[in-house]
Amino acid sequence: xxxxxxxxxxxxxxxxxxxxxxxxxxxxxxxxxxxxxxxxxxxxxxxxxxxxxxxxxxxxxxxxxxxxxxxxxxxxxxxxxxxxxxxxxxxxxxxxxxxxxxxxxxxxxxxxxxxxxxxxxxxxxxxxxxxxxxxxxxxxxxxxxxxxxxxxxxxxxxxxxxxxxxxxxxxxxxxxxxxxxxxxxxxxxxxxxxxxxxxxxxxxxxxxxxxxxxxxxxxxxxxxxxxxxxxxxxxxxxxxxxxxxxxxxxxxxxxxxxxxxxxxxxxxxxxxxxxxxxxxxxxxxxxxxxx
Length: 291
Fold this sequence. Notes:
The protein contains eight helices and twelve strands. By secondary structure, it is α+β, with helices and mostly antiparallel strands. It has two domains: about 1-50; about 65-285, 3-Layer(aba) Sandwich (Extracellular Endonuclease, Chain A). It has a six-stranded antiparallel β-sheet with strand order 3-4-5-8-11-12, sandwiched between helices. Strands 1-2 form a two-stranded antiparallel ribbon.
């Protein structure tokens, strides 16, 4: 009996390197797959964190930069996800490292300079929001692997910053589990004043959903930050803190639009929206048909 136990221990020790290698191979494969598939990533990332491992980057999935035009503006295309836009083109002032990202339920023009969105685009309707009411929220923020390391916000940038990780496409709008998981990409997040995020801005998001629930068809929503020339930053990655946030609401059925314009501060209050024309004047950003 003792000899059998001793032999079993020897076999166990001999097999340990093979099991370790197999485990490492499985983890490497899963981590690589998760970097390409956000829904898998949000499931695997906590497990890898407990093992003190990180997801592998996905260099082949990096979106190409958007080139500036001769007049100092950028015209986007979003060829992979045009369904989120009411018109064929969007024009924004030129900036460094602008990249288009498509998700299940929204699209992002991302700035590698500020490491936040320029804007986030959504197409919403009553059916989608009814579906969203049945989706459980899971707060699993993650770094966007499709962006180069130097252009993306890190989880550590927000840690201890005193700012909320503020969604631009709200988690409450997401009609399924995949979309919910993707909404926690840091590409969809800006450093937001906590009181503003949970107060006035939360009410604007809720009021927008109430309107969409009553609308007869699709409503397009654009949300994004506005910065001063030298914005405050957080973290070692120097993620820019916006001075203002905006939310454009465009009802495709009535062709009515309005823009919520909010200071990113604890003192912000919900007030009357501004016109789309005034928004373009303030920002130079044109996301709908010319005002």
